[in-house]
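Renewal narrative, Specific Aim 1. Our central claim is that a sequence can be written position by position from structural information alone. The example that follows is taken directly from our test logs and has not been curated for this report. It begins with the structure tokens describing the chain, in the order in which they were read.
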């Protein structure tokens, strides 16, 4: 029961923040400011956005947990809003699942050694940036297309690799992060990647002989900035615009890797931060931290230092309702997490499957589940109610099969609904915006009606009594 109590405490605290933010976002100037016939590039109408904010406000308004024969309790199921880009509750859940799934592969990649016991792959932490802009969606597009072009430079062509730095990457995990720029308030979109490379990445601005000479002259690691600019092995033109909108080119020193990123961006972005990950940690950490890392095995230390690749930016850090709306619209239908090479998993980045529950039928010690309890959020009290038992094991199996049938029927309706929506969105430019929005909204109403009828049938079967699930059991967006 202690596990459940701590889960509830944590959820209650997070809900306090999400509820407040959702309410503010619903009344934000962004939502109030958009016209009735607004349709985002991602295909969202005003009604869609309001609906998504409502789901955000209702996230985790009920949860269910399982009790096992050995007395263990585990969170089994909950009503999540499934919008990790804006919801802290969902972000935490997605983050911990990814970590659980990928940590063993990362540890194995770090441990990979040749017959002499030398590590085969070098881990790097990379951060790629594009120039800031006020449109989240376009910025994500720009970052993703630049990253694609950058990876292509290292792809296999015929029998050989084309020589790009990405060709050295055996496997990588990448995540897009959106932050609110300090001062400007504009969204900053970054791509963080953890990459395991078969060779050292070429990130040197100075040629080796030049670097050695300068190190001798200034002392190791003390080379002044301007010396880099004067002695670089490579230079490139960086394109930018001044306040009046005139194009300005600046010649900058680049490494082979940053040159490839700059070329991939069409000459406008040169910012790549590359950090090799070492057993003893990065330069500048405290002696205590370093001792702690050194005491760990090499693989442990690498995993520990690269945990942030799973981190989800929480919008609650900003508590900015306008920004929340922008991120909600800009990330809709976007793939923000991806895996490559030895870490590749086709499921990454796809929307979550609503049937993907976390509860297992057996506890850690192998004891079977004996009961399920449901806890609902009490709005007026601002806390969770007492647990109510909702099932008996065998009856649940029956109800579960009815639920999967209903879900599969709903899946088919949803497929058609999404195809229709995409088709309607394609009519922009042919029909007036108002007509397209009206078609989208009335198609949504129709879809909702279909789904409600489906769950009405489920309700009449009384399966919901056994499962303790309110039909309709979550209308998908
Ligand atoms: Zn949520």
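The sequence written for that structure reads:
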């Amino acid at each position: 029961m202690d596990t459940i109590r701590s889960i509830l405490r944590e959820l209650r605290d997070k809900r306090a923040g999400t509820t407040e933010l959702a309410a503010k976002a619903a009344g934000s100037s962004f939502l109030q400011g958009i016209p009735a016939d607004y349709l985002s590039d991602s295909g969202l109408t005003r009604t869609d956005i309001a609906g998504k904010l409502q789901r955000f406000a209702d996230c985790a308004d009920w949860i269910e947990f399982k009790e096992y024969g050995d007395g263990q309790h585990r969170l089994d199921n909950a009503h999540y809003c499934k919008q990790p880009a804006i919801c802290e509750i969902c972000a935490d859940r997605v983050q911990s699942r990814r970590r659980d799934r990928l940590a063993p592969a990362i540890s194995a990649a770090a441990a990979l050694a040749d017959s002499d016991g030398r590590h085969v792959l070098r881990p790097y932490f990379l951060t790629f940036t594009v120039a800031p802009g006020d449109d989240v969606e376009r910025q994500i597009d720009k970052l993703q297309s630049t990253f694609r072009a950058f990876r292509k430079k290292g792809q296999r062509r015929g029998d050989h690799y084309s020589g790009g730095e990405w060709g050295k990457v055996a496997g990588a995990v990448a995540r897009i992060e959106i932050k609110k720029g300090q001062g400007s308030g504009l969204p900053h979109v970054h791509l963080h990647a953890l990459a395991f490379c078969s060779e050292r990445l070429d990130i040197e601005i100075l040629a080796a002989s030049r670097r050695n000479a300068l190190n001798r002259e200034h002392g190791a690691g003390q080379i002044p900035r301007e010396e880099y600019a004067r002695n670089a092995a490579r230079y490139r033109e960086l394109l930018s615009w001044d306040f009046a909108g005139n194009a300005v080119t600046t010649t900058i020193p680049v490494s082979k890797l940053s040159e490839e990123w700059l070329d991939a961006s069409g000459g406008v972005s040169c910012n790549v931060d590359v950090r090799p990950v070492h057993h003893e940690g990065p330069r500048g950490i405290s002696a205590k931290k370093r001792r702690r890392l050194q005491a760990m095995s090499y693989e442990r230390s690498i995993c520990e230092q690269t945990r942030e690749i799973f981190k989800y930016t929480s919008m609650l850090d900003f508590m900015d309702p306008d920004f929340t709306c922008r991120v909600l619209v800009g990330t809709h239908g976007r793939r923000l997490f991806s895996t490559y090479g030895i870490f590749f998993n086709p499921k990454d980045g796809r929307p979550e499957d609503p049937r993907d529950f976390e509860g297992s039928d057996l506890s850690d010690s192998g004891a079977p589940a004996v009961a399920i309890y449901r806890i609902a959020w009490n709005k007026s009290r601002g806390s969770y109610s007492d647990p109510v038992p909702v099932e008996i094991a065998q009856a649940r199996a029956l109800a579960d099969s009815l639920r999967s049938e209903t879900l599969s029927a709903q899946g088919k309706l949803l497929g058609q609904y999404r195809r229709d929506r995409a088709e309607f969105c394609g009519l922009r430019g042919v029909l007036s915006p108002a007509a397209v929005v009206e078609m989208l909204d009335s198609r949504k109403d129709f879809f909702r009606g279909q789904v409600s009828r489906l769950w009405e049938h489920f309700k009449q079967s009384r399966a919901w009594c056994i499962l303790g699930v309110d039909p309709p059991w979550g209308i998908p967006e």
